[in-house]
Amino acid sequence: MPTKLLAVLLVIAPLWAAAQQQRDLRVEKDVPAAAQAQPKTQAIPRGYALVVGIAAYKNLPEKFQLHYPERDAEAMYSVLISPEGGNFPAENVHRLTGARATLSNLRHELEDWLPNAAKEDDRVVIYFAGHGFVFGGKAYLAPYDFDVNRVSATGYAMDDLGAVIGGKIKAKWKVLFADACHSGAIAPEDNQQINGTLLNLNRSLFALTASRDREQSFESPDWGGGHGIFTYYVVQGMQGSADENHDGIVTADELAEYVHRNVREATGGKQNPTSDRSSFDPNMLLAYVPATASAAAPPPPKNGTLIFEVNMDGVEIFVDGNSVGVVNKQTPLRLPGLAPGTHTVKAVKMGYEPDGPRDEVVYPGQERTITVRILIPRHRNKAAVEQFDKALEFYNKGYAENYRKAAELFQKALDADPAYSQAALYLARAESALFEPDKAETYFRKAIEIDPDYLEARSSFAGLLLDTGNLDEAVRQLTVVVTRDRNDGTANYLLAEAFRRKGDYAQAIDAARIAIRMVPTNAEAHFWLADSLRLNGQFQDSKPEYEAYLRLSDFDSKLAGKLNYYALGFLIGMGKKKRAAQTDIWKDLRSLAYFGLCDSERKLKNFAAAIGYCQRSLAYDPDDPYVHYALGLCYSRQAQETGSVASLPAACKHFQATVALNPDLAESDYARKNIASISTLVACQ
């Protein structure tokens, strides 16, 4: 190979990283400013969190298996990402539950991700629910693959945890919640010298753990339908129950006092949460719950309990607008730890008139049983049903003119019966198909307001939110769905998209695999799994998933024009409101799938295959500058590998196309430099 050619190509080849980064963000570049989180009156530091929950252990006998840690982890995740709670961006909260919570993964998240992600002015939360063990005078957290015969080799030493929190993670506020047997050995009140490495005098640390170092931590179905007692009160407190001065902020001091008091009372003194009061800022902001802000005097300190009994299975209970659980006839829902005073309660079941909303009083230190009666089936107005059925006929035909007619008729159905949640949902879907996202959001919210347990409406709404760029709200809506039904195929597919676009590839992979397990023919689930695997560095694994997407979506493009992606859960969040037809969505995804194959083959150094896939990508979207740039790099690498200039004219051609299509891209600057370099060897036409 000529020395000069080698020198030129060594300049060109490294530029792929820039192209990949921009290409990977392609589906996000049209996010409107209005879709970003709205400013809050309270300054809330940026947050990062790791949530770990393990119920079934790989190597432990049946008697040591737990029931609720994964449910606890889901509850903690929900309150952290809630705008009426922790206010964490969803992509900043990583979850390790079940078999994913291995020692290797735990070390990676604690020792690599959090120290690299969190900055000086941030806040960090680490939550662990599972087993803790004491061995040889040292305390350990037990990951999924923990082995009692090899404790020091398979457990995560709390000394190491202290060193990570105190020395590696640099954040303004650091919070540790541990709901595990013997978890108090992390920071016991009676011996502050144990694991003193947790205390960093230059940083504020709040360590709140489930029990003292010689105690057990309990779990029970009597707390919120099944939780660890400690976690139940942590979540209740962060949802606002711990806000004793009613300023809308839950501080570390308030949460510590609330959890200490309630767990001790609930267990008759058998479990005593611990915290080191000398090591944290008592005013540390743990949750922002503006709904609790009030000028009223703070309530008495002693909390009360509501117990809900229902007359049929599957009734969802809301307290102060928050879903607190689904209740069956034979299993009352017990909600201890509620702040004294008046609370708004509502019970809902799809297809029935709700019981409530109504006010119920919680008295200090007392239990009250609330009897819920779901009695009246919703009877649809005959005229409304007729309008709905006519609308559905037009809606199912597809195309803009039919969606417009369907929207008119769905609106008439809703006018005739304002409680017709199905009409509201399909009106939202019709407005979505007509590229009216604001109208669509209004009616999605209306459907959910009428029936808060309308999971299909929440999933469809999340599809719209993905398309408009409101990824955090999409994750919140979908989290409600998967909390009720972990195996919901549509919700998991959409979660896979949301997490992939947020860069949380591990959670995207998990969600996509659940979606595929439930609905193997969901082509787009395969696409998001493939994309997340590729961006996670699993290039070989990504290829069969891209191929599965291409195979499952290989239909006549005319059919694509009839597909309603909002109704089917196939929305891809690629700026659909700017598209002329549904066919364009299908073409975009196929173009991206071939690009993904191109990138994977390129990373595996299969340059000929990569070039073929990028060319097929251009067949669907010939004006994509990123694909042209990628092809230019592939041809350049091919020239480098073969020592021949034969492929350089093709490289030059695609670099020129990149510049012509979008001269302002960073890739275009690189393309110009590459064109100049190549021109010293061959003529660029």
Topology:
Layout lengths: L2 H10 L3 H9 L22 E7 L15 H13 L11 E5 L5 H15 L5 E8 L1 E4 L2 E4 L9 H4 L1 E2 H11 L4 E8 L23 E6 L9 E2 L6 E2 H13 L7 E3 H15 L7 E2 L9 E4 L15 E6 L5 E5 L2 E6 L5 E6 L2 E8 L6 E8 L4 E5 L10 H16 L2 H17 L4 H13 L3 H14 L4 H14 L2 H14 L4 H14 L2 H14 L4 H13 L3 H14 L4 H4 L4 H4 L13 H22 L3 H14 L4 H18 L5 H14 L4 H14 L6
Helix pairs in contact: 1-23, 1-25, 2-23, 3-7, 3-14, 7-8, 9-10, 10-11, 11-12, 11-13, 12-13, 13-14, 13-15, 14-15, 15-16, 15-17, 16-17, 17-18, 17-21, 18-21, 21-22, 22-23, 23-24, 24-25
Could you give a quick summary of the protein structure above?
This protein has 685 residues and is of the alpha/beta class.
Instruction: Give the DSSP E fraction (strand runs of 2 or more residues).
Output: 5-15%
Work out the helix count. Answer: 25
State the CATH class of the largest domain.
Alpha Beta
CATH topology of the largest domain: Rossmann fold
Q: Quickly count the domains.
A: 4
Give the strand order of the largest sheet, numbering strands 1, 2, ... along the chain: 2-1-3-7-8-12
Class from secondary-structure proportions? alpha/beta
Low-confidence segments, given as residue ranges, are 1-41, 187-202, 559-583
Q: How would you sum up the major sheet?
A: 6 strands, mixed
Strand runs, count: 20
Q: Determine the fraction of residues in helical runs and give it as a percent range.
A: 40-55%
CATH architecture of the largest domain: 3-Layer(aba) Sandwich
What is the terminal-to-terminal distance? 24 Å
Overall 3D form = globular
Spatial extent as radius of gyration: 28 Å
Write down the overall mean pLDDT: 81
